[in-house]
Design a protein that fits this description.
Elements: H1 12-24, E1 29-35, H2 41-57, E2 63-68, H3 78-84, H4 89-98, E3 102-107, H5 120-127, E4 131-138, E5 149-154, H6 159-169
Parallel strand pairs: 1-4, 1-5, 2-3, 3-4
């Protein structure tokens, strides 16, 4: 499903509402955030990541892991995928036994080398049924083909929105 009717792109607020609804129940699904450079994809992903982290600390949701795609430069084997998020296969197994699940935030799919873009199935294999969901950000034209995914298209920020963001960020 998409957060935009036809070819219309969602505003930051519309996109955030769509993403928040997805985050409430990401089980076995993926979210793809698409937007041009400077549209706020990474900012939206970081807000969702931080909210997920707060929920996880309170025992209310899966443990979020942040992974910028551009760091995926090693040969893509299962071990390298887990190394990127700082976990061993033993830790993932222990988490599974304890009933802990994970949600993976992958930023900048379009910025990754071609081989790194093939990492998504490896993440699914590495985490198995402990993977509650994957959120991916990318620019148009690089949208990954991910089963069970929802897509939100973010429009460019207006000059006013950009100034408001920079003002709030600099405080």
């Amino acid at each position: 499903s998409c957060a935009h009717p036809g070819d219309a792109w969602a505003s930051g607020e519309e996109a955030e509402a769509f993403v928040s609804r997805w985050a409430q129940s990401p089980k076995n699904s993926s979210l793809i955030v698409v937007g041009k450079m400077g549209s706020g994809k990474t900012e939206l992903m970081l807000r969702l990541y931080r909210a997920s982290l707060s929920q996880a600390v309170e025992g209310m949701g899966p443990v979020p892991l942040w992974l910028p795609f551009q760091v995926l430069s090693k040969p893509l084997v299962l071990r390298a995928v887990l190394d990127q998020v700082g976990l061993s296969s033993e830790q993932v197994d222990a988490a599974a036994e304890a009933g802990v699940s994970f949600i993976l935030f992958c930023d900048g799919f379009d910025e990754a080398p071609e081989q790194a873009r093939r990492a998504i199935p490896l993440f699914s294999r590495a985490f198995g049924d402990r993977l509650a969901g994957i959120a991916i950000s990318t620019r148009p034209g690089y949208t990954p083909h991910v089963p069970e995914s929802r897509t939100v298209f973010i429009r460019q920020w207006t000059s006013v929105e950009r100034e408001e963001f920079l003002d709030a960020w600099s405080r």
